[in-house]
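[Discussion] Sanity-checking designs against the backbone

I'm trying to build intuition for which residues belong where. Below is a structure token string of 283 positions. I'd appreciate it if someone posts a full sequence so I can compare it with mine line by line.
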């Protein structure tokens, strides 16, 4: 498709088109229209099919940009997916349930997820992968550690912007709170966190991970009354994931050490290994 400037319109049409496409926020149209025009001419495509191809490219790119934006906004400490998760390493984890949850219907139903288990068993990996799946399926996500969220809530309260932060936390479709239980909370911290759960109750989903079984949550929130009220809300519609077993990190570092020890033994000179060093040897 060739575009010729006319005397009535001295600006080259490409310049105006670029301007209009930017105004219309169609960056893929702008980037691709010449290339696709050449392809369309080559393949003998008519104008509607040429435009359709461009529109499809714009839609695909827009979806990708939105997923990337949701991932940035979620503030994940790392981007992890189930592609790199070895379900055979953690027998206690209900794989069919996890894969079902990765389809994100629990977010539409506003259910919660609680992942419980000892350290290093993949709780953070699991909630990051569920968070990523949610971003990919169009849901807004926010990731916090429990201690980090409480810190931000206290800071917001001191700076008189607590309502704004609470509104943001209430608006997000999936709120992930990792590592509840590692640090006991102050009374104010516990109350602020309780309020977050209270405001989200039946309005939006939350994923909470903890190294502590429910019976020990009182040690985090200090007050049995507050803990009871929180568990009541959080477990109203909940899917529980159990990750109990040997730490994945520990298992892998042990396996690595074993492999390295094996390599060292194999690469050592077998003859030298047979001759013990002379007691007076200086080397
Ligand atoms: P937790 O949050 O339960 O302490 P993490 O999710 O941080 O554990 O896991 C520790 C490390 O081991 C992470 O790098 C994680 O990606 C990895 N990991 C844990 N479990 C698995 C698994 N089943 N498959 C693959 N990697 C795993
Ligand atoms: Mg963790």
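Best answer:
Here's mine. Compare freely.
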């Amino acid at each position: 498709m060739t575009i010729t400037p006319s005397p009535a319109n001295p600006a080259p049409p490409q310049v105006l088109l670029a301007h209009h496409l930017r105004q219309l926020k169609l960056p893929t149209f702008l980037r691709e229209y010449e290339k696709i025009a050449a392809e369309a001419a080559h393949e003998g495509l008519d104008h509607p099919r040429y435009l359709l191809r461009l529109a499809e490219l714009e839609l695909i790119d827009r979806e990708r940009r939105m997923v990337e934006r949701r991932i940035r906004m979620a503030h994940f400490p790392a981007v992890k997916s189930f592609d790199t998760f070895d379900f055979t390493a953690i027998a206690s984890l209900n794989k069919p349930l996890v894969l079902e949850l990765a389809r994100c219907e629990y977010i539409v139903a506003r259910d919660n997820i609680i992942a419980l288990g000892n350290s290093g068993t993949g709780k953070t990996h699991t909630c990051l992968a569920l968070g990523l799946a949610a971003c990919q399926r169009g849901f807004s996500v926010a990731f916090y550690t429990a201690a980090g969220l409480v810190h931000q809530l206290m800071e917001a309260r001191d700076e008189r912007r607590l309502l704004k932060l609470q509104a943001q936390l209430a608006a997000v479709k999936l709120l992930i709170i990792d590592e509840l239980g590692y640090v006991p909370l102050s009374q104010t911290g516990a109350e602020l966190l309780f309020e977050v759960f209270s405001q989200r109750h039946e309005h939006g989903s939350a994923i909470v991970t903890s190294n502590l079984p429910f019976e020990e949550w009182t040690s985090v929130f200090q007050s049995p009354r507050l803990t009871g009220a929180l568990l009541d809300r959080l477990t109203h519609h909940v899917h529980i994931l159990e990750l109990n077993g040997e730490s994945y990190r520990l298992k892998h570092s042990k396996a690595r050490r074993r492999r390295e020890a094996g390599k060292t033994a194999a690469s050592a000179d077998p003859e030298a290994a047979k001759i013990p060093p002379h007691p007076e040897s200086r080397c």
